[in-house]
## 1
Amino acid sequence: MLAHLSLDLTPWVLFWPLFFSGVSIAFMFVPLNTLALGALKPEQIGIASGIFNLMRNVGGSVGISMVTTLVARTAQEHQTTLVVDLTPYDTTYQSSIQSMMRAFAGHGAVPFTAHRLAVGSMYHTLLTQAICWLTSIIFAGSRCCASRVWWRRCCSSM
């Protein structure tokens, strides 16, 4: 559902994938808790539930920090790949900067400020495109992994 993202993303594009993700996570926790705590004696359930929730929170925190680090580093790699074409000697870059400077000057910015705003806007566009590229790769990779799991599950039962 999310493998074809673009820079024209609206909140409604994300609604159904996030809705299905939230519903599926809700259906995951009941069997997980039953599996973890089902074989215990009633007097052990309180302590085991605390340990289970602690491990779930620590695991989630470690997982989120690892994914965040991976995303930041990969986004920097994509940014480095994209910035090769953004040099002051490139005519397309020069014309884009001049066009943005005229737009900012039309809104009352002095030339020095207009140039800084134009370069900042160009950099913001570069970051947005790098993150969009990274996000599309992540979703395409997760779709590939999910199809592999499905394929193994279907083929192993034959």
## 2
Amino acid sequence: MISVAYAAEHAAEHASESVFMDPHFWVYVSFIVVVGFLFKPVFTAAAKALDARAVAIKDRIDEAQKLQEDASAALALYQRKQQEALKDAQEIVARAKTDAEALAAQAAKDLEATLARREKQALDRIAQAEAQAQREVTAVAVDVAIEAARAVLAKSLSGGDQATRLVDDAIKDLAVKLH
């Protein structure tokens, strides 16, 4: 109870005093004034630091956007080059196929020409062999005919020297006429 009585008495003393006489009040006021004076420079410095940080972040974002645009342009360029290289490769393959087909056709044509030429050569050799054989057969036939004619004439002209000369002349003429 003593504390309640003391508090009531002490409250009565303070109630009569003015708020401006209270030291706590002036401590609060001075604290607020000091904080107010310190708040402006601290706030200005913090705002400047935040503004500088915002500018740095904006610069980094702008740089990142520029790098992204450069990368997109480079990607588009390389994709275009890749498509051109693919088209070139397809053209080379198509040209190679065309060339291979042309070479195959030319090789087939050359083979046909070679076979035709060899066939003609073989036919020419056969024709030459036939002509040679025919000449040989003709020569043998002429020789046989001459011998037969000589024998027949020799038998029919048994008269000697004139018969032999006549046969020899006929044989000479016959050889020239048959060959």
## 3
Amino acid sequence: MKKFTRISSLACLLLAALTFTLASCDKDDNDKKNLKFSPSDKVGVVVGSTATVTVSGGTSPYAAAPSDTKIATTTVDKSTITIKGVAKGTATVVVTDKDKNSGKITVTVKEGLSFDKTSVEVEANKETVVNITGGTAPYAAETKDATIASATIDGNKITVKGLKAGKTTITVTDKDKKNIGTVSVTVK
């Protein structure tokens, strides 16, 4: 009977230790924080271009690892993550902090549209034409500051009209907004 009591006591002691251990692990998991990203955890970037995301809610230093470096690469400077588009596609960037807290950024890399001129100068009340190559028509153009210049599209040609002195950009997208490109405009 003494032997049974010892085994029962030992079993109770082991069960208590196991319960304490499992409870301790559960508490550690609940202490993990999800990192936050600004402006968003969804990033679009053109092949060859970069986008920046600021991470918060964690402890520096941060690390960023893309799921496919053939699509996107990353560099980290303090709390700023720079994402570079390498090839068309989608990748996920896993960001971790010093305390192993983590978060994910979804990156969509698009092919850029090409232009015969990526930068134009035009006088006020005058026009110039930029030719679009690549992508699929129809194209759409949006001027960042429509008080400085306007843009109209006919086929694969963008007609840029200077309205008043200043600088702006024109963003051009193709059918279904699958490809994107920009033209810098200076109006004299």
## 4
Amino acid sequence: MESNAGTINHSGGAPDDRRLPVERRARPTPVVSRYWLRGRRLGGRRTGERREIYVDRYRVTEWVLVLSILALSALDYVLTLIHLEAGGREVNPLMVYLVESGGLVFGVVKLGMTVVGLLVLLIHVRFRWARFFLSLALGVYMLLLIYHLYLRFVA
């Protein structure tokens, strides 16, 4: 018995295709695929697909933004501990509870929340709302750094 799969239909039509009827492109691209961080999706595949898409690999500028926010968050943690040791107080009610639980608990939860939030934003970095919140987070942490410097050297 011979298979006609993939042979040309000589009546001028498309090849005789007897593959599975499931079209892999019928489903939208998953948020996180098994190729995340090592796949080939750097951008959209079709003309005009530049926004509101998921990718597997990120631009250098996207990594710099995310890692800058993470570094500023770690710096905020260290400067907060220095401020508390100098007799200052924490004004964020959630962080007050965590500081009272211990410096390590405070650090793990603070940096852990930052990492989880940054991962969500990194996955969605090609969406307008995610870029907005990444920029907002960077601005807020920069202002926090200025505030810490003010408390340390002026107040």
